[in-house]
């Protein structure tokens, strides 16, 4: 008899507590969403390249980056990397495409590489802290929102492994060693073009990201800034002319993609150095757009 | 059409912003409603897909949707109202290689057509 009343009271109190907590929880969630929306829409976030992330944000982003790369590099099979000829070829590519942003032993980054956030990593450090598979993945795919480009449409996998082979040597190179090696390598340069295979529309679709076509065109099936510097490519498979001057067929499209300024010297579409294989893949994809 | 004054007012700043001299300012704002009719009359739709024009679904030239937003006209000219008028009247003078024919479009029609095309955003 005595403990019946307290029990009911306790139940009621508990019920009230649950209701109150729920209301507080919902209110906090709404406030967070509203806060996030205000932050985004009022432009409170400073996107300046000179405004470094705050320490917690930096740590969070870096952790996400590390986990993402490790996860994706897990299944990559690493070929032998100790052939000196391989590293030497890698050094050539590195001097051509990477040193401006990343620098090298005793060599500073160029102006581009200095003004970026995040700053392009010191790759001697990277070679010590990351596995060859992770480095391979990073070079091949690039890193979104950092300025690190994807190189898979510039280099074949074999060529990327050559770069990796060079990078793995980097921690061991003093500035003087590096200079000596560069002097040695400056003599000859060789690069075999890979044989052309059947056009693959899906690779063509990806290649259009690699050549930054979306910086100027709206292209169905590709996500991008959606600008109209050039005509939208929707329906291009059915159009009678390319750029209003060339009959639209497969061979002409391949030619246009590789050499637009040869087709029409007045055109605002620049020559982008599209390889024959990539041009064929892209043409195959574009021919499907109706 | 009742929309005419509204369109003209909307388009005015555009033309001033482009920095035309006096005679061009006088010659510019056309009538988008008349332009729409002119586009139908010249049959531009047989070669172009043009929003708002009945049956305009040609595939010979590029679609003209959002043509007002295009950076270049025909891929070669900076897109301004004067250039648009020129292009519509004498495309071959701008790009001798072009497949767009000269259709003897009058100056007045070209001005009205331009006014209509600049409503496509």
Automatic annotation (TrEMBL), chain A:
Keywords: Heme, Iron, Membrane, Metal-binding, Transmembrane, Transmembrane helix. Residues 85-171, 199-290 form the Cytochrome c domain. This is C-type cytochrome. GO terms for molecular function: electron transfer activity; heme binding; metal ion binding. It comes from the Bacteria. It holds the Pfam family Cytochrome_CBB3. InterPro entries: Cyt_c-like_dom, Cyt_c-like_dom_sf, Cytochrome_c-type_DH. PANTHER family: BLL4482 PROTEIN, BLL4482 PROTEIN-RELATED. It comes from Vreelandella zhuhanensis. The chain crosses the membrane at residues 21-45.
């Amino acid at each position: 008899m005595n403990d019946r009343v307290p029990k009911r009271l306790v139940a009621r109190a508990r019920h009230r507590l649950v209701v109150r907590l729920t209301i507080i929880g919902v209110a906090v969630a709404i406030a967070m969403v509203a806060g996030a929306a205000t932050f985004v829409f009022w432009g409170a976030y400073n996107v300046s390249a000179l405004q470094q992330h705050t320490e917690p944000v930096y740590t969070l982003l870096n952790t996400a980056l590390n986990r993402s790369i490790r996860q994706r590099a897990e299944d990559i099979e690493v070929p032998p990397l100790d052939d000196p000829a391989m590293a030497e070829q890698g050094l050539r590519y590195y001097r051509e495409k990477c040193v401006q942003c990343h620098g090298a032993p005793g060599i500073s980054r160029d102006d581009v590489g200095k003004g970026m956030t995040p700053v392009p990593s010191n790759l001697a450090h990277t070679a010590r802290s990351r596995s060859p598979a992770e480095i391979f993945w990073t070079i091949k795919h690039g890193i979104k929102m950092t300025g690190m480009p994807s190189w898979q449409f510039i280099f074949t996998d074999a060529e990327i492994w050559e770069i990796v082979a060079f990078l793995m040597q980097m921690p061991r190179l003093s500035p003087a060693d590096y200079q000596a090696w560069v002097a040695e390598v400056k003599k000859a340069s060789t690069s075999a073009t890979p044989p052309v295979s059947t056009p693959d529309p899906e690779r063509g679709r990806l290649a259009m990201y690699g050549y930054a076509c979306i910086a100027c065109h709206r292209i169905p099936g590709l996500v991008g800034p959606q600008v109209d510097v050039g005509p939208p490519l929707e329906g291009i498979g059915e159009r009678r002319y390319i750029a209003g001057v060339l009959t639209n067929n497969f061979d002409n499209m391949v030619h246009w993609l590789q050499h637009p300024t040869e087709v029409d010297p007045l055109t605002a579409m620049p020559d982008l150095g599209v390889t024959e294989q990539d041009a064929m893949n892209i043409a195959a994809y574009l021919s499907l757009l109706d | 059409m009742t929309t005419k004054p509204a369109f003209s007012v909307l388009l005015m700043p555009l033309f001033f912003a482009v920095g035309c001299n006096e005679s061009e300012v006088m010659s510019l704002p056309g009538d988008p409603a008349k332009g729409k009719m002119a586009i139908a009359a010249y049959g531009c739709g047989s070669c172009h897909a043009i929003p708002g024009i009945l049956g305009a679904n040609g595939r010979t030239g590029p679609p003209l949707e959002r043509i007002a937003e295009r950076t270049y006209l025909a891929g070669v000219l900076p897109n301004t109202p004067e250039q648009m008028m020129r292009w519509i009247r004498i495309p071959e003078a701008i790009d001798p290689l072009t497949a767009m024919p000269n259709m003897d479009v009058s100056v007045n029609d070209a001005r009205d057509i331009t006014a209509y095309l600049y409503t496509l955003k």
